[in-house]
Design brief:
Blueprint lengths: L2 H12 L9 H9 L20 E12 L9 E15 L2 E18 L14 E2 L3 E16 L8 E16 L4 E18 L4 E19 L7 E8 L2 E2 L5 E3 L3 E19 L3 E18 L5 E21 L2 E23 L6 E28 L2 E19 L4 E18 L2 E18 L9 H15 L1 E16 L4 E16 L10 E13 L1
Amino acid sequence: MNTKYILSLAFTIALAHLNAQENPNITYSKEKESLLTRKTSAFLGELNLPAVGNTTLGYFYEAGDYRHPFTGKSKQGLHFSSEKFQRTGDWTVYGRFDFTTLKEKQLAYASLVNPFTDNPYQIVDSLKGDWNKQFYDMALKIASPSFAGGSMRAGLDLSYQVATGARQMDPRSVDTENKIQLAPNLTYKISQRHQLGLAALYNYHKNDLKLTRANENQQYNVYKLLGLAEYAGASPFIMTSDMYRNYITNEYGTEVSYRYASDQFRWLVSGSYLRHGEKVTDGTTYPMKAGKHSYDQYSLLSTIDLKRGLYNHHFDLNLLYSDISNTEYQQLQRTDDRSYETIFEGTLNTALRSQATLAYILAKETSSYRSDWFAKVSLNYSGWDNRYALPQSKEIIDRLAIGIRFNKAVSRWVFDLASNYNFAVKNEWSYADKNYSSNFIANNVALPIYQYLASDRIANALSIQYRLANFGRKNNELYLKGAGSLETVVSSVMGAIEKGQSRYSVNLSLGLLTF
């Protein structure tokens, strides 16, 4: 490996800026306990998770020349987080609240507060502007007392997310995103060691986008994307008045799980299916169909937890597959009532997303969910096959990532070091330039995104926690924590992404652990 990249790891280790990561007990609990990621929250009633709360308030900064086209030159802000796992009588409750406010500078093209979505129907322009963004995330998991002779539990998994963003120059984006996820669930204990779980999944997502101009004498070119560098019309839309776009999503699905638990061995198998339907509409008085984004998503999780003396062995296998189809419309406006009539609709853009992760964690445990140290190795495959029918275009990005992590507590200190190497298995881009347009979208948005995603990179991260004081009858802990990370390009395909480009972040926070 080039000396420069060895130095990048050394530089990351030297970043002793302290960040808002969890206390090692909570960190290890989240790494080890896969049921915390499942929607069947009734399972939590069977666990012996420690009743620990963690609250942090921190500052973060991120910058660098290696970035996605939908990422600003720099971003900085404040983050507040509070979470708690608690047993109240026979009830089990886990709650979390996160709030982030940030300013992102010189962000081009994007009009949404969260442009990182598989939905291709976005509006972009060619100007760079600063954004003010805020994110709220609330989650609640509940497991009821057992009933039906101790063989059943009921549960509820509920989350609510809000994101707001405003671009500070013309054309000014004002975007508000609301997400609600609801999963009532039930578990049934077949015997002392065997248990089944079933959850019904429903998600609702609404996104309201408004583009305005402070200077109404100025016109702007905007592009309505259709997928893989294609956009509506042979030329950009000339923005002479305010523009409105609305996204409404309904998702339905189910999760089925099986759990085996003994004193020294636990096994969880969980599979889910989700049907996503997202309708995009332009305008308010005379709404016009802007596209429909749909996919079928399948996931499978298998975990094994094996206890041997003081050491715990944990194995994870995660599989995810999404079959995506995007429907376009051609419409005419009626002269009588000015409503739009669809004269053609078709699925021209399709994509397949595949992910597979295999991970192993070795820990020296001090109790069931507390560790003196733990080490993790992981292998991740991600595949993205994006195609457009007419004209025929394709974008294929297959990646492998190898990750290692080590967490160790020493007296009042906790050190957490991680490294990840992400490299290409297959990258392919095929696109026919248009002779009737400037090819702005292809050359400035779609192709740079491909080049960013196709580059090989290494990422190193370090966090350090220091316990400041213990107080109260339950020995609550006040701590200072921080992190630094550095991601560096080690090779790239043609284009603006060059070898040696990097992106770094630093974080600093004050935390409180309550028991």
